[in-house]
Amino acid sequence: MRVVIDLPDPVWFGLADIAEERDIEVPWLIAYAIRDLLGTEHTRLAAARSRRERVVALAREGLTDAAICERTGENRNYVATNRRKAGIAPNRPGRATTERKTA
Fold it and tell me: Of 14, 52, 85, 89, which has the highest C-beta tally within 10 A?
């Protein structure tokens, strides 16, 4: 595939210097940089999703926000926000757990 990019001369020369040091061509340097950037972003998003899923799973098990904070190391606001977004009512000691109905 051919992609045309207009780069200012100083940027091109900087990329050319880096590519020469690594013994690759500039287009490959740009392709590798984009791949690494997207891989990093994907990893970050997956980690955030995993954190949220763990908090929600513990809330569904009936743990209180405080117990979830202790177990996960997350702060109370993070736990409460994600529990609410999942439509789960707060679990309080000595009370039955219920889920909110969302329309």
Answer: 52
Helices vs strands, H then E, count in the chain: 4, 0
**69-94 residue pLDDT tens:** 999 999 999 999 999 999 999 988 76
Signed CA dihedral, 95, 84, 71, 69: sign only: negative
β-partners of residue 88 are 99
**How far is the C-alpha of 78 from the C-alpha of 57, rounded, in Å?**
14
- The alpha carbon of 51 is separated from its chain's Cα centroid by a whole number of angstroms, namely 9
Q: Which two tokens stand for residue 32?
A: 């590798």
Q: Could you tell me the maximum CA-CA distance found in the chain, to the nearest angstrom? A: 68
pTM of the model: 0.55
pLDDT digits (tens, 9 = 90+) for 20-72: 999 999 999 999 998 888 888 778 888 889 999 999 999 999 999 999 999 99
Written as one letter, the residue type at 11 is V
Where do the domains of the chain lie?
A: 9-85
